[in-house]
Amino acid sequence: MTVAELAGWSLVVLAIGFALWLLVHPWHERRRQRRGAAARLTPAQQQALADIAPGLPPLTPLLRDRLADRVAAFLADTRFHGAGGFVMDEACRVAIAAQACLLRLQPDADGYPAVRDIVVYPDAFWVHHEAPDELGLVDDEPDLLAGEAWDAGRVVLSWSDVQAALEGDPVNVVVHEFAHQLDFDRPDTTGAPPMDDYREWSTVMREHFDDLRETGSPVLDPYGSENPAEFFAVAVETYVQNGADLARAHPDLYRLLDAYFGLGTAGPSRSLDSGAGSPG
Ligand SMILES: [Zn+2]
């Protein structure tokens, strides 16, 4: 076989492979959604969820039940991988799934369809990015990270930081990285989860982002002043970890986030039993 014939055949094989992928891919997607929707927590997973409940915001009975359903679906649909010597177990999977699903407790939310893989290191991990930043510059220095969200559907986490959030640390790396995943859901918007009408969201978020850059905040991490995407992730972290202080310091920002996520993190009187606004 000549080189030209070989190249021709390679193209034919590639084309057949792509056609098969197109046929199989939608089937795989439907199967993945069905599996998650039908999933129920095992007794061991229920126990793991009960064990970490004191580290989560207090939830109404309705939202607690919904969280269990969302966690079951998330566990059925997501692959977890230990890295750097970390050995994954059920308690770890449930702790990550539960914190991620806190952001998807709206009645019609459908989890994180794009997230396929979660990689967990025992501790903060070094990352060396060779991709240029928004200014076209490549940083030579590696970064020490507690978490990282890839728009290809992968989230990387440090287990010690996941645990710290459950023990009350104001930083919640799972919530932060999954807020980025919600942001990735609409490539044409930045600093917002998917929704039908962005007008109020844009006004309130822009005002508080500018305030954080100019004067700082008693509760929001200054890291949020990096850009609108980081502001959104930091604001959601604060809403989950420290809702009462956020409501006192920035009441309209709290109201905006609570209207979307519906957890009532500022206190029981603010809980929305009927769930939150539509995620769009
Ligand atoms: Zn971030």
Automatic annotation (TrEMBL):
Keywords recorded for this protein, A-Z: Membrane, Transmembrane, Transmembrane helix
Source superkingdom: Bacteria
Membrane-spanning intervals of the chain: 6-24
Keyword Ribonucleoprotein: no
Protein name: M90 family metallopeptidase
Source species taxonomy: Bacteria, Pseudomonadati, Pseudomonadota, Gammaproteobacteria, Salinisphaerales
